[in-house]
Write a structure and sequence with these properties.
The chain is mostly helical and 762 residues long.
Length: 762
Amino acid sequence: MKISLLQQMYKDVLAGIPLARESRHYSSLMNLCVEQPPGGDGSCHQQHLPPTAGGTGSHQDSDMSHVVPATDDLSRSFANMSSSFCPREVTLLQLTLIKMMVAKAESQEIELHTRQKYCEIFVLLLKEAKIDSKLIHLLGSDDRLLSHMASQSLASLVYFQLKEEDAVNVPWLSFSLAALPGFPRSAGVPACLWTLAAILKETLKDAPAARAGALKKLLAPLDAVLEGFYNAILLHHFDSHHYTSPYSEATNNLISFIDLLEALLVSRIELEIPFRCQRILFLKVSYVLNVISSSIPYVIKKKFILLLKKCVLCKSREDTKGGSLFLQSPSWCEDMLALSNVVLQVVNLTWLNQIPLSGKSSYFGSSEIAPGHDSQGASDQTALRALSLVVLKALEFKIHNSATEAEIKGDFESSMSQLLMFWRSHGKPSPHSHPAGHHCEWLSLVFMEQDDDMWEAAKALLLIYLKLDRLRRGVADNLSHKEEESWQFLVHAGGYNPHCIFLFFLEKIAFDSTVLLDFLISSETCFLEYLVRYLKLLGKEWPHFVEVCNHFDSRHSALHAVCSVKQSCVAGASLQNAVGAAEPQSAMASAPHNCPVFTARQGDNGAAEWSQSDSLTGADSASLLAPLQSLVNYDSSEDSEVESDGKECLVNTKQLPSNNEGEVRRRQAGCSCRDDDRNSRTSEVSPPKLKGSPASSCWTRMASPDNIAPLRVMLYKSTKCLEELQEAISRLQRRNLFPYNPSALLKLLSQVEKMNKSMNPQ
């Protein structure tokens, strides 16, 4: 029986056993009989078989006229095939064998003579059996499994022929050139798109030296057709009823096209001069932005959003060898500038507000909410981060290519304002998070769950800050104090102060240096590049960093004061109730309303002024003191433990507790910022008196008149974290365990340590 022979052949190929019989035997065995395409219901039906050795076969395919008759035993097997076997099963096994044998023929693990035998079989199938034409015929089958398997097999054969013969398969090329211009009338569009994407992906797996030539052969005849198809499908009327269902044919066309666009994006890095079809996504990105804001199913919107993220991050491939040359190419700069201009233009026109980020897109195989999960009001955080990165990287590229501050100042402030409003609208609600009290905190709140995205966003904002600072200093060498204050106000209001961003992140990870070490060792993030750039900036702006640390301490002291007052008010109320006092509770409830909070506002003279904000309510203060979970638990890893240097830091003649001990207690308790820990550090030291702060009796309960020196808890904890990181890196380097040479990084960390010790010589 044919099925038995195919099964034995499958086992031999799978095990790598050489095929003992002649090549024509196996090519006849694998030849498809598709004069009548199999039915979509999977029911058994009679297929026309190859002719026997002595027969003519009234239904013989014209394409089979050159096939040499099969051997007698094979003919007898065909003739005696049991009707209990469905020809659909035979066809599926043949398709599986084709795909498997192509993979084996390209594998260097298979013996040379075995691979040569596979190649001989494929030559017979392509030249004599015309199997490519039969596979194209199967693409239109109503049986979705058969159609999908035929697409995979066809892609494998086209790739095989492209690599071995340096030629594009003619039947497949003719099919593609006819199907794509026929949209939307042509029924073969999805199969054509999917097959081309699969061929591109297979080509990119090849040796680097062979990729460019193969891509040129493949894309040159399709370049103009693909650009025309891009215009046709993305200018379609997406509000029509054809796109209301995520399972419609129109939706399937779009999803297949997105996969092809991603493959084209990946492949452009291999060519010095990319084809137009590889650039069209950048040059006509407005079409994609219109689709995202239309009423199409959310799954398509999200795929387009993630595709745009890959465009701006240049991360479509993990192995981007030669990427630096690629990024410097004129076509890439031109394309990214075109994309950035259009993205920022629509963002300033409130385009972000038109995108509903559905929270139902992540459920497995369904859009229904799982039992016990209430996603009302929740937004898709993956899409939120992707859109945010698209805007931030567009801003970074636009500013990088601007020569003066006047060119981009207005657009930048408008775009950042829109982005901050977007974050406030879609920020993830969590019992362990709190509303951002400072614009610079939004970055860590939005991106904390995705390490690689977070550091890409932080690096973008850092580069924006550096470029804007360089542009403003280029206008005037000596800036006045008022101009410096105005600059700092704008930086904080825009949410891109690099020192605030870094300190907020350290707070979120409980100042755990092992988390930073993990990021440095990992190759999945750009944290190394970010940290080196930031430490260089820190060396230049150390006084400003200290100032920001002091403001963090003021904020925490204010929060502690709120809690202290509330506790004392409760105690006072209990005492008054005990002695029969009749003072109204409302008078005590208003006591905390004079306590300061860390915010920035602009004074009448336009300069930045750090002062108290409006009073905190009880709910706000409670949410701000909510525990923040540590990202990684390193307690079980001996290699990751950071050795304590045994040194003690004295602040205002008061001994601070060991940072390691405090962090261990916090991790064991499951929080990183409890007010119990704050009590041990701040109960004996009054917060710095802020300008315009109203007199309040709440400070007298916790302040000592002798302690008037500024509190520097944040400075101590942040620099201590960096010192521990420096020690851990040095220890790993001595043992030859660090994955790269960290000498430059250690030098920068050492400079931070020296600057800190110069302030605290104790």
